[in-house]
Amino acid sequence: MSAVAGLINLRARLPFGMPGRVAGRSAPNWDPWLLGSIVVLLVLGTIMVHSASVSIAERLTGNSTHYLLRHLFSIGLGVSGMFIVMHTRIRLWEHLGPYLLLIGIALLVVVLLPGIGVHVNGSSRWLPLGVVNLQPSELVKLFMIVYAAGYLVRKQEELRFFTRAYS
To answer: What gap in Å lies between CA 59 and CA 65, rounded to an integer?
Structure first.
């Protein structure tokens, strides 16, 4: 058996590489390289956050794991969000794209209103949300991608022959 055939056979046996059916829908077909790179980045990021913040956290809060625990909580929120997005139908994202973009633009305007946006170093980029601050520009980046993807799906017939000259 060649090495390539062995790798293909191995991938077919992996549980996250096998499509299946769950509650009338096909189960997600996990990409092992993408999933592995996500796990590696999360682990390395967690190690770096902890090693870079031990002394600062000890000095400021008296707890050397303060920033590590905050980081792990953020990872938990992010992974939960990932699973929610993964189990949401694509059609819903296509439909919500324009509305999400309008909400994002509105949030960018709200940041500039006096008394609402948090001023840091002379610029206002953050919205205070209690214990955390939100930077709307990061959301708008994501919303723009969702909108552009939905637009390309809606206009795929017109865009298919975009380079063809009309006579």
So the answer is: 11
